[in-house]
Amino acid sequence: MSDTEGASHTHGGDENEARRAMEEARKRKEQQAAEAIAEYEEARRAEKEKETNDIEQLRQKREQRRQGRVDDEKRLQGQRAQEDARRKAEEEERKRKKQEEEEKRKAERERKRQEAMKRMGPKKPNYVITKKEDGEEVEEEEPKKEVKSKEQMEQEKRAILAQRIHPLELDSLDSAKLQEKAKSLHEHIRNLVSQQYDLQQTFQRLQYDMIEMAERARQMAKSRRALASAQVDESFDRLADKYTGAPPKIRLCSKYERQTDSRSFGERLGMYEEKSKNQPSVRRVHPIALPMPVEDEDDFLY
């Protein structure tokens, strides 16, 4: 019995030891798992903080870029406004200059027209009429003609047209009189058109004649210039007229040379004489008659 109890007691102690070992192993595993979870959570928290910081930095950069785009847009808008203002100012300046130039041209045309009217006006006499009144001479000058403005000329033109153009007064006319009036107006228009055609033909013919005469005048002037350039200088020579028995004058240099020869007559004469003395003598060679070759006796006898 004692052996059995000791064995059971030993077996029970081993079970307790094993249970304690298993409990310790389980606790170690739980502790390791808790430590791993804590490390994972710490790493996850650090990673999350890093991601949060990165996202915040990206948001800040995006906000900076947006603010930069807003600033650039404002700057470009200001530049566009300045460019538009400058362009408008240039356009206004161009229009003002163009208007000033147009006014200057109008003033110049008006001045030329006034001058032409003055030139085309009636000429004043180049003399002064003097009259004697009570023994004193009085000079009467022709009154100056008033120069009319453009508005006055336009009014005179309208008045003349109103005098020449008569109203038709068709209210009191019946159909027969209206037909007669239309026929008379048609005949008058036909006469005016025929007169206009005749005047146009006359103008064209006169213009052609003037052009032809001008061309003939140019041709005649051209031919006269050619004849004048081809004529020989036959001016009067006093020396030749005085010494009629002397030989004609010899020109020792060309009259077309740009630089006149400054040598005297004796120097030039001596130069030509020296050249004539030093000329080599020419020996004449007389031809020698050579006998003709005889090829055949019959030819020689013939």
Descriptors for this entry?
Troponin T; Troponin_sf; mainly alpha; 302 residues; disordered C terminus; Troponin; TNNT
Write up what this structure looks like.
Pfam families: Troponin. Belongs to the troponin T family. This is Troponin T. The structure is a single chain. It is built from 6 helices and 2 strands; from the N terminus they run αββααααα. It has 302 residues and is mostly helical. It has a domain of 53 residues. The protein has a two-stranded antiparallel ribbon with strand order 1-2. Strand 1 and strand 2 form a beta hairpin. The longest helix is centred in the N-terminal third of the chain and has 119 residues. The C terminus is likely disordered.
What's the structural blueprint in terms of helices and strands?
Layout: H1 2-120, E1 129-133, E2 136-140, H2 150-164, H3 175-230, H4 238-242, H5 265-277, H6 297-301
Antiparallel strand pairs: 1-2
Protein name: Troponin T
InterPro entries: TNNT, Troponin, Troponin_sf
Pfam families: Troponin (PF00992)
